[in-house]
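re: ur question from yesterday

yeah so i grabbed the chain u mentioned. its 211 aa long if i counted rite. heres the sequnce exactly as i have it in my notes:
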Amino acid sequence: MEHDPAELLDLCRAGEGLRVEFKRGLPADAKIARVLAGFANTSGGMLLVGVENRGRLIGLEDPDTVAVELERIARERIAPALALHLGTVELAGVALVAARVMRRRGAPHAALDAEDHPEFVQRRGSKTRVAAGEALRGLLADPGIDGLDELARAALAWLDGAPVAADVAGLSAHLDLGRARARRALESLERGGWIWVDGQDEVRRFCSAPR
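ran it thru and got these C-alpha cells back, copy pasting raw so excuse formatting
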C-alpha cells in the first residue's frame, strides 16, 4: 500500500504524538532505532523524515538514501530486526521519507545503543522512553498477537495472506461475517496498531505488513 499524501499532511498538521514523530534528517543510528523500536513496542506509528518538530515541511535532498539507511537501521540496530513500510512522497513540493511501523507480533524489540547494548523502549506521549520496572515487566509479559481474540487473529491472518490491501467486504465474505462485525474487527486492529488503513468510509482498505 502506498503512503497516502493526504494522510501524511494531516499528520504533519496534527503534530507529534504517541504514534507520530518528525525528524529533519537522520540523527545517530541509536536515536532512530529507539524511535522505531518504541513504536513497535507500543501501538505502532509513523516516522516522517524531512519534517521539523512543529510539522513544517523542509524536505530531503536525497530521500532514497535516507530510506535505505532507515531500512539498514531497522535490520541491524534493532533486535529482533524490524520490518518497515517505507516510501518516499512529495508533499507541498518537497520530498519526504515515511516509515510506518506496525505493532510487534511476538517478542519485544530492543534498540541497540552506540555500544551495542540492548534497550527496551516504549512510547510515552510524543517521547520514547526506556521501559523499566513495572513497564518493562509488562512489556516482556505482553502476549502480543496471542493476546488477541479469535476473530481478530482470523482477520489478521487473512490480511497477511492478501496479495493487496483488503476491505471490509472482503473480510465479511471470507469469514462469513456481517459487514458491521467485520468493520469493527478491522477498526479494532487498526486502533491497536496491528494494521494500517488507507481511505475513508466505504473505500477504506487495510493492510497488515510491508509488501
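noticed a couple things. The radius of gyration is 17 Å. also The first strand starts at residue 20 and ends at 23.
anyway ttyl
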